[in-house]
């Protein structure tokens, strides 16, 4: 359970630092708008996303079991976080995140890191696609500039509400959102190592400001972003509150553990390395404790940002530390500029994130899988969208393990690198 940074620093040198520093700054430019967008989509203040990226990102890199893992808020948590805030308030989310951190610490201490191999791959694929669908539909309001007093969290009710207000759509908002998505895709293809994401968001947001377009920005909707980290504080704890929030904490812990270990496995294949799963769980636990103490969101290893780090030349956990410190520097120095980011641009970013999460390029392969695996994927997907994540995970894992136990010729799950 030794942190990977202690191993890599034994042979650290100036050349490695330069590579890590460049990669860390590059990842920060990707993580900055993503962290803001994820917080907003989760129903939280956008500053909470920055706090999470800074505090949790730093802890995950300092204590984690992967050389190149980048941590922070991720799209997988949007559905859970939104639901917890609606039902229990933001203070309830903070306590649930704190509890999830403790659960992950215990899991790491009990050497539970290898248990991910017991989770059937169709379950992972099913709820990932389901989450992607929910994220994409949650961004339609801002992408089209729709005006609605309140959008329900329930999937079909949400679609009905958005359809009812379709006449309020803003051509300017849609143009900014589509232009942002087009720029992000184009820059990724033309300059794959360049942080084109921040350039695309900055360019379209600048167009909104210069042309005076009637489009919402972070500042117009939420006010000024803070220029400092909040003071640390422990959440209010009571036995009744703990019992009430335990199911949410368990889901957060499960998601954080699974996504971080999947991300570490993908990173291993990209750098020919070997992560330490129990150290990774302990790092995720400490990161969620730290994020909660500073009033942030749940955090985990981020597959897309980890892949960006590897692609930019990151070699050791120092790159993740540089990434967190770079976001902190932006918060201290340039928070007002970040407030000019246009909401449709961030919506377009999250829709692309959802598209990448769904891994459309793998769908043809799913059609060649066993019928039982196809059924398990669809079952988990449908339950994720129409019920909730806790139900989808519990039912999917139970049915999946029952199917696996009934087989004797099932090979181990083969996780493949997601498309960036």
UniProtKB/TrEMBL annotation:
It is a multi-pass membrane protein. Its main location: membrane. It holds the Pfam family Sulfate_transp. The keyword Transmembrane applies. The keyword Ribonucleoprotein does not apply. GO terms for biological process: transmembrane transport. Coiled coil: none annotated. It is found in: Membrane. Keywords: Membrane, Transmembrane, Transmembrane helix. GO terms for cellular component: membrane. InterPro entries: SLC26A/SulP_dom (IPR011547), SLC26A/SulP_fam (IPR001902). The chain crosses the membrane at residues 21-41, 47-63, 70-86, 92-110, 122-140, 169-187, 194-215, 245-267, 325-355, 375-403. Residues 17-379 form the SLC26A/SulP transporter domain. This is Dicarboxylic acid uptake system A. It comes from Thalassovita gelatinovora. The gene is dauA.
């Amino acid at each position: 359970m030794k942190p990977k940074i202690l191993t890599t620093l034994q042979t650290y040198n100036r050349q490695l630092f330069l590579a890590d520093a460049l990669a860390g700054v590059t990842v920060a430019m990707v993580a900055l708008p993503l962290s803001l967008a994820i917080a907003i989509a989760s129903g939280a203040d956008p500053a909470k996303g920055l706090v999470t990226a800074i505090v949790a990102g730093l802890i995950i890199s300092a204590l984690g079991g992967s050389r190149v893992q980048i941590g922070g808020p991720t799209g997988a948590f949007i559905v859970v976080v939104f639901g917890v805030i609606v039902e229990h308030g933001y203070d309830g989310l903070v306590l649930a995140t704190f509890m999830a951190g403790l659960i992950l610490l215990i899991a790491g201490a009990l050497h539970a890191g290898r248990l991910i191999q017991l989770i059937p791959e169709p379950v992972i694929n099913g709820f990932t696609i389901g989450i992607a669908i929910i994220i994409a539909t949650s961004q339609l309001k801002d992408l089209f500039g729709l005006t609605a007093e309140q959008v329900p969290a329930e999937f079909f009710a949400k679609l009905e509400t958005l359809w009812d207000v379709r006449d309020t759509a803003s051509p300017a908002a849609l143009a900014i959102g589509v232009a942002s998505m087009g720029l992000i895709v184009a820059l990724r293809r033309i300059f794959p190592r360049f942080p084109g994401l921040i350039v695309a968001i900055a360019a379209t947001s600048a167009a909104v400001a210069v042309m005076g377009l009637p489009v919402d920005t972070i500042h117009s909707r939420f006010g000024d972003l803070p220029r400092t980290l909040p003071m640390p504080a422990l959440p209010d704890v009571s036995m009744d509150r703990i019992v009430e929030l335990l199911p949410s904490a368990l889901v957060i812990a499960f998601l954080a553990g699974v996504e971080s270990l999947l991300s570490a496995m993908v990173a291993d294949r990209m750098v020919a390395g070997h992560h330490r799963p129990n150290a990774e769980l302990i790092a995720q636990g400490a990161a969620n404790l730290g994020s909660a103490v500073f009033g942030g969101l749940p955090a985990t290893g981020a597959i897309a940002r980890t892949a960006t780090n590897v692609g930019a030349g990151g070699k050791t956990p120092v790159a993740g530390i540089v990434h967190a410190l770079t976001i902190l520097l932006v918060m201290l120095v340039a928070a007002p500029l970040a407030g000019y980011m246009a909401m449709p641009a961030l919506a377009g970013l999250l829709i692309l994130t959802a598209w990448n999460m769904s891994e459309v390029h793998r769908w043809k392969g799913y059609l060649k899988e066993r019928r039982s695996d196809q059924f398990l994927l669809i079952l988990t997907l449908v339950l994720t969208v129409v019920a909730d994540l806790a139900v989808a995970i519990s039912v999917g894992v139970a049915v999946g393990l029952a199917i696996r136990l009934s087989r004797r010729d099932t090979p181990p799950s083969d996780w493949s690198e997601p498309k960036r």
